[in-house]
Amino acid sequence: MFAVISAQREMADLKYSPEALKDLDEIWDYIYSDLCNPDAADHTVDAILVKTESLREFPFSGAPLDTISRIHSDYRFVPANNFLAFYRVQDGVVYIDRILYGRRDCLRTLLGLK
């Protein structure tokens, strides 16, 4: 006879910065208004939210920032469509700091470099 062991994983809290929420609004507005594609706007933002929500269960699944730069920090990122969600994990909380278009100079924007 075998015992069934159920391992429950503690889910991390997820918090979006005001800048990340503004990024989501701007992404949706641009695709909806400038590209005249409301379905794509909804789909894109939904895909980003699904990807960031998955960080509750797997907070360290994103790549460390230093895999794409020489800058050492506690930032990680996950791709979602053409966007990158930059986040940090501290004390069981995932902080989504920015959601930026992947072809932009994300590091300058993320880190406030000139």
Structural account:
This protein is an alpha+beta fold and 114 residues long. The protein has a single domain, classed as YaeB-like fold. 34% of the residues lie in helices and 25% in strands. It is built from three helices and five strands; from the N terminus they run E-H-H-E-E-E-E-H. The protein has a five-stranded mixed sheet. Helix 1 packs antiparallel against helix 2.
Précis, in short:
Helices cover 34% and strands 25% of the residues. It is of the alpha+beta class.
Keywords:
YaeB-like fold, alpha+beta, 114 residues, five-stranded mixed β-sheet
Which stretches are poorly predicted, pLDDT < 50 over at least 5 residues? none
**Could you say how many structural domains there are in total?**
1
Q: Assign the CATH superfamily.
A: RelE-like
Major sheet: arrangement of strands: 1-5-4-3-2
Largest sheet, in brief, is: 5 strands, mixed
Q: What is the count of β-strands?
A: 5
How many helices does DSSP assign?
3
- Kindly state the percentage of residues in helix: 25-40%
Q: What do the pLDDT scores average to?
A: 90
CATH names the topology as YaeB-like fold
Q: What's the CATH first level?
A: Alpha Beta
The structural class is: alpha+beta
CATH architecture: 2-Layer Sandwich
Share of residues in strands? 15-25%
User: Helix and strand succession?
Assistant: EHHEEEEH
Overall shape: it is globular
- Alpha carbon gyration radius: 16 Å
Measured between the Cα atoms of the first and last residue, the distance is 65 Å
